[in-house]
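Summary for the steering committee. The consortium agreed at its last meeting that each partner would contribute one worked example illustrating the joint modelling workflow. Our contribution is presented below. We chose a case with several input lines so that the handling of multiple components could be demonstrated. No manual editing was applied between input and output; the record is shown as generated.
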Amino acid sequence: MGDCDVAVIGGGLVGGAVAFGLARLGRRVALLDEGDLAYRAARGNFALIWAQSKGLGLPEYGAWTARSAAAWPAFAAALHEVSGIDPGLHQPGGFHLLLGEGEYLRRGELLARLHNQPGMPEGGYRMVGREELAKLLPDIGPDVVGASYGPRDGQCNSLRLFRALHLALGRLGGAYLPAHGVQALRFRGGSFEIEASGRTIGAGQVVLAAGLGNAKLAPLVGLEAPVRPQRGQIVVTRRTARFLDHPTTTIRQTDEGGVMLGDSVEEAGFDNAVTLGPISAIARRAVRIFPRLGALPIARSWAALRVMSPDGFPIYQQSATCPGAFLATCHSGVTLAAAHALHLAPAIAAGRLPPELAVFGAERFHVSAAA
Amino acid sequence: MSETAELAVVGAGPAGLAAAALAAGFGLDVALIDEQPGPGGQIYRGIETSPHAPGTVLGEDYWYGARPVRAFRRSRVRYLPSTAAWSLDRERELGLLHAGQARTLAAKRVILATGAIERPIPIPGWSLPGVMTAGGAQILLKTAGMVPHSGTVLAGSGPLLWLLAWQIGRAGGKLDAILDTTPKSNWRRAWPHLPAFAVSPYALKGLRLRLAVGRRFRVVSGVVALAAEGQERIEAVRWQGADGSEGRLAVDTLLLHQGVVPETNLAMAAGVPHRWEETRLCFEPVLDAYGDTEVPGIAIAGDGGGILGAWAAEETGRLAAVAAIRALRPDAAEALRPVEARARRALAHVERGRAFLDALFRPAERFRIPEGETLACRCEEIAAGRVIEAASMATGPNQLKAYLRCGMGPCQGRMCGLTVTELMAKARGVSPAAVGHYRIRPPVKPLTVAELAGLPPDPVGEGAVNRD
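What follows is the complete predicted structure of the assembly.
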């Protein structure tokens, strides 16, 4: 295929969700992806749909997240129908488990501050004491004093989500193009030319969803994406009998039975190697929370790079100088997938981002520099 | 604090033993880590404790192994038996596990001598109970003196196939048949290398072995297809000859073999670059003349660097040790010169004839690349057909994992890695080099969450996780 209506650059969860949303609206979409060893947050995430702790300092982000969590059931159903693959949505509310009174108090204060901001949606969380928690999660260890609970929180099977997005795009007439790292991107005569894998693809619109790759691509079309890598590591056990009915921030049981243990936050540049210090700390915390995890054999560990903006919030922007160029980047590709497919994609198709997304522009990073 | 060593050698087979003993002889503080309770590796497995009398069943090439083992026993090497190396990073820190206790060991130089593993043989029915590898059967023979009796068929190709058959015969065991899958067309490719092979140390031995096995057991040559049949376990093996003939035998054990390939997991986990080797149909690490990899301070010796056999492994072990000693003891350069020269001469001698063996025993596609319903990944039960279907969309094996869970089971792709790469390459009509391989992450050996949790805490790791 030579020309398309929209070229989405970046085949991860952000690009995949936007591409799916655009293709549903009848747009001819090309989804350009890199090769097998690209930095892929989409293959290293924790698969949480998580709202309870999002938005301190930017309540609009809390609202956007809550909106996506609410849209997830419709998104999952649409995706399942088109792709034939069930992304495994399970949204029973989630817990952040707390070890010791200090953690419990600090969590309570943090969430109170967050949810008291004007503009935050109601009913976003509550604190749960040990007694109530033990009824819901009977396997917690003696060090767990309680948890914060988010009613909107959930989980999915992010690998099936990933594949479903790629498959659905094809079924809707779009093209998923692996091994198409972008070599050049030009705005010429009102449309875009992209050079990738030895050919030129013409597009009426372009969406930059290339994660860390956006930093280099954005300036080519009058945008900016000051994102940096932040390493996160996880450990996954082999399958075990079901014992955990709710997702938690650092431990969740997948629908296949394995248990994912997370997570770490490290500024390690573009190094996505697994390191023993963090993964052993993850294992120590996990066995304090659920002692039964200790006996499980580890299937694998993983490290991936989060895509972080300076304030940690997403960047959504349309280009002033190259009309038709959009930027979408965030580190919550799973949580926001529904919003990206059902809200962001229609706005891009209409050619204009809605007012409620104006706060997510990259201009916000200039304000403090000027002040 | 991490335990330290100047040189850490992983694997106590011929390469590891030779490397460790030589380096210790030059005064290096050497730790030799090995999974097994005693030295010898796979080839000389159980040599200090074998139930067989010396010189009998297992053959003189096995008992030769007593020599390097004795030399190692006389050296001042810190020997860590029954210890699994489950992690290695670019800074040369090893993750170890001994008796349920995990710890780390940091070394200035690391020599990986982790040897070979058997190639996966994804024929129909290969996951049925009762189907096992020839190597597995040989371990039982070496360590427990167990031999097959009636109801066993050995099928495949490669030097180990004939050696095992010979050993089984000597031990009084029985094979109902040997199904030789060596493609007849391989002879054309091997022919030009025959003169070099004829004067190699392997030629006469190999010929004798082959004749002895032929006298003892029924050998069916020119087998082009194999399948294991059965419901709960294997009940029969079915095969097809090059001439279209078909055969079937009721069996309760089928031993399969299609040669060995480098065990690359620890090296790949450390980020050592590997490249596809088209003659030997596997990934091999990129090495210099001393076995040094592109990761500073990490070298690979023995079959892990490319299959050359046990004698060559001793010499590549010594060459890797020479480089390590020279790096850590510059004053020893002069004394190392004759050591290196001897090792290179010996290596040249035992390398002769290898090209012939590589060409002759290159396994046929039928036994490497499965089709249709035949499983590619047995842990997750992913059929070849599903891999082919997803191959056009996936960026490579790593994305395929995400798509299908192929390679995400207990073996983590250690078993199906080559199969999946070749399958994707065939489906796309490109070289396996263009497809690439699974990204390997620790742990590369079994480890529980509690064992990982038992590592001593470090501030960086704690800070990255307990953020509150």
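DSSP finds 18 helices and 21 strands in chain B. The CA atoms of residues 35 and 82 of chain B lie 5 Å apart.
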